[in-house]
Amino acid sequence: MIKKYSIVTIYLVFLACITSAQNKKKNTPTAAPKEQESPAGKGIIQFLYSYYDFGNINEKGGRVNHTFKFVNTGYAPVKINDVITSCGCTQTTWINKSIAPNDTGYVNVVFDPDGRQGKLDKVLTVLSDGSPKSQVLGIKGMVYPSKFNFANTYKYQYGNLAVITNLLNFPAVKNTKYDSTEIGLYNMSNKKIYIYRIDAPTNIIVNKPQDFMFPNTGMQLKVKYYANRPVEFGPVKQEIKIHTNDDSIPTKIFYVSANIVEDFSTLSKSERKKAARAVFNKTEIDLGNNSLFSTPVAKFTITNKGKQDLIIHRVVRTCNCLTPALSQTIIPKGKTATLDVTYSLANMAGPDTKTIKLITNDPNQPEVMLTVKINVTE
Fold first, then answer.
1. I need a labelling partner for 81 at 20 to 30 A (CA). Which of 96, 120, 124, 147 fits?
2. What is the C-alpha separation between 317 and 355, in angstroms, rounded?
């Protein structure tokens, strides 16, 4: 009996200990769970690059600009609040709204080089509500005087392009071949200049290596000049028009002068002996004294002493005061033609000398200069 009570007593004590322990554990406060932090609590402006080099800048070529682009790589929207520049020569604009995560934005900077020769090294401080709150961008370059590094070659300014010359001269283009030259251009502006179109006569071929010129760079246009068809022997004047996006003088006109000559290089010695031969009674005539407003006439004769027909390709006068009249342009062997040159003496006084050039198929004298002298009296 005593043993039974002892077992019961031990069991009750055991239960009391367990209950007490459970109550104690229950009343002990549990530690608050640690608050989870976001991977990125703010937007993050990630620029593709932090500085831009303009290279050579023409002082008088106008303002230059560049756009810095960025991506919001954060997990919240971000907005640019301000962009602070280190110099009043730079102006900035930027996207004025919040940029969602993974969207893009920009900061645009404009630099005015006028009066600021030398090294360009400016900074922009971008302030935002993102992380970090401020970032630094930079622009670099070198501002040169407007005539830098091209003045020795490119002599003339043609709007915002400098050119070697706007006159192309081909002194002796054979009717069976072509002559060639180049048109040298230099972009003096601070923007790309595009060549949209080149208008040239069918006998002139102009090739451009590319469609545009970067700022402060040059370009050489290759020009091939062929005799026109049908061939017009002697002096010829034509134009080439180059259409550009230049704000100043967008269409550049280049004046072309050529002298077309007959190619006798393929003739053998025997063929030369059988060729036409022009013989003139005289190459200079002095009309003496003549009164103002009169119209004296100088008479030249041309005889073909060769074995082939003599062809007078062209008669070229050097003054509108002369009026040439040729009796025939094809002179058979042994025959003679006349050339009457009428001298109009309006608005003239005193001694004067003028010339007429005949272009023929005589290989020994393809060009013959005839001279007319006169003395104009009242």
1. 120
2. 7
Start-to-end CA distance of the chain, whole Å, equals 177
Question: What does the angle CA 305 – CA 286 – CA 322 come to, to the nearest 5 degrees?
Answer: 80
CATH code 2.60.40.10 region(s) in the chain: 45-144, 156-261, 274-377
- Do residues 339 and 324 touch, judged by C-beta distance below 8 A? yes
**Residue 374, amino acid:** I
Mean predicted confidence (pLDDT) in 143-154: 68
CB 189, CB 246: distance < 8 Å: yes
Give the side-chain half-sphere CA count within 13 A for 151. 6
Structure tokens at 286: 């002095």
Place of tokens 């003395």: 375
Cβ neighbors of 264 (< 8 A, separation 6 or more) are: 272, 363, 366
What pLDDT score does 150 carry?
Answer: 61
Q: Which CATH class is domain 274-377?
A: mainly beta
Topology of 156-261 in CATH? Immunoglobulin-like (2.60.40)
Q: Which two tokens stand for residue 92?
A: 């900035």
Q: Which amino acid is at 298?
A: A
86 band by pLDDT with thresholds 50, 70 and 90:
confident
| CA pair distance 290, 353, nearest whole angstrom | 13
Q: Which of 171, 252, 172, 179 is nearest to 222 (CA)?
A: 179
Average pLDDT over the chain reads: 86
